[in-house]
C-alpha cells in the first residue's frame, strides 16, 4: 500500500479530532474530541508517548469502543518470541500479497489498512497517516518493536520486550485473544462466523490447541496455503 508523503512543515498545526485508540488520551475530554495534528491526523499525546518510548499491549489501555476490534485484530497475529517476527494470519490482498485489516478511520473513506499499521496504532500509538518502516525487512510483521515511524524521533536505545516489560504483556495478550475467541463463539455466533471467514484454519487451530500457538505445529500443505491467504 502506498504511504503518505511527509510534508515539509510536519505537525505545525493542531486541530480537534475524534478520540484515539488509547483511553488515557481522552481523559478530560467532555466533547469526545482530542488534539490531533492537522496534516497526519496523529494523536498529539500518542506522538509524545512515542518519543518517550512508551508502548503497550494491554487491552485495558485501549478505549472501550475499540477493545473488541483490538482483540479481533490480535487474534490473527502469531505472537512469537521477543526478538522474532510476528506473522499476520489474517487477510491478504491476492495480487500484492500485502496484509490488511478492516477498520474505518476519520480522515478518509478507506477501510483497509495494513496489519503492521494496525499493530503500531494499538501499541505505540495512533500515528494517523505517518509512514512506517520495518527494521526486520518483513512488511507484514506485526511485532511492534520491528517498526519505526518516519518523521518522529523515537526512544529505542537498547529496547527489547524484556527491558520494557512487554514479554509478560505479550503472553497475556495471547490469553486475552484466546478468551475473546471462545466468548465470541459462544455468545455471538454470527460475528464469530465473520472472524472464521478471514482464516478458518488458523482460528480453529487456536481454539483447539493446548500448547503454544505456532505455525510450525501445522504441518499439512493445505494448512500452509490457507494460513498464507
Structure notes:
The protein has seven helices and six strands, in the order ββααββαββαααα. The protein is of the alpha+beta class and 229 residues long. It has one domain. The radius of gyration is 18 Å and the shape is globular. It starts with 13 loop residues before the first strand and ends with a helix.
| Helical content (DSSP H or I, runs of 4+) | 25-40%
Q: Beta-strand level of the residues, as a percent range? A: 5-15%
- Structural class assignment: alpha+beta
**N-to-C SSE string, H for helix and E for strand:** EEHHEEHEEHHHH
Features:
229 residues; alpha+beta; 7 helices; 6 strands; 9% strand; disordered C terminus
Chain-wise SSE layout:
Layout: E1 14-18, E2 33-37, H1 44-51, H2 67-75, E3 101-102, E4 112-113, H3 115-123, E5 132-134, E6 147-149, H4 167-187, H5 189-198, H6 200-208, H7 221-228
Antiparallel strand pairs: 1-2, 3-4, 5-6
Amino acid at each position: 500500500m502506498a504511504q503518505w508523503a511527509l510534508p515539509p512543515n510536519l505537525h505545525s498545526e493542531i486541530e480537534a479530532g475524534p478520540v484515539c485508540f488509547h483511553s488515557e488520551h481522552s481523559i478530560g475530554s467532555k466533547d469526545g474530541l482530542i488534539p490531533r495534528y492537522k496534516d497526519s491526523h496523529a494523536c498529539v499525546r500518542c506522538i509524545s508517548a512515542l518519543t518517550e518510548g512508551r508502548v503497550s499491549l494491554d487491552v485495558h489501555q485501549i478505549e472501550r469502543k475499540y477493545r473488541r476490534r483490538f482483540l479481533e485484530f490480535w487474534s490473527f497475529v502469531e505472537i512469537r518470541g521477543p526478538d522474532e517476527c510476528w506473522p499476520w494470519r489474517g487477510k491478504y490482498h491476492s495480487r500484492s500479497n500485502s496484509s490488511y485489516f478492516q477498520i474505518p478511520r476519520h480522515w478518509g473513506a478507506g477501510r483497509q489498512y495494513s496489519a503492521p499499521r494496525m499493530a503500531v496504532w494499538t501499541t505505540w500509538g495512533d500515528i494517523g497517516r505517518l509512514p512506517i518502516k520495518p527494521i526486520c525487512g518483513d512488511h507484514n510483521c506485526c511485532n511492534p518493536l520491528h517498526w519505526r515511524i518516519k518523521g518522529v524521533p523515537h526512544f529505542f536505545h537498547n529496547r527489547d520486550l524484556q527491558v520494557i516489560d512487554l514479554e509478560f504483556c505479550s503472553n497475556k495478550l495471547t490469553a486475552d485473544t484466546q478468551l475473546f475467541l471462545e466468548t465470541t463463539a459462544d455468545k455471538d455466533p454470527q460475528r464469530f462466523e465473520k472472524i472464521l471467514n478471514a482464516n478458518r484454519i488458523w482460528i480453529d487451530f487456536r481454539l483447539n490447541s493446548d500448547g503454544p500457538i505456532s505455525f510450525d505445529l501445522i504441518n499439512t500443505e493445505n494448512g500452509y496455503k490457507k494460513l498464507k491467504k
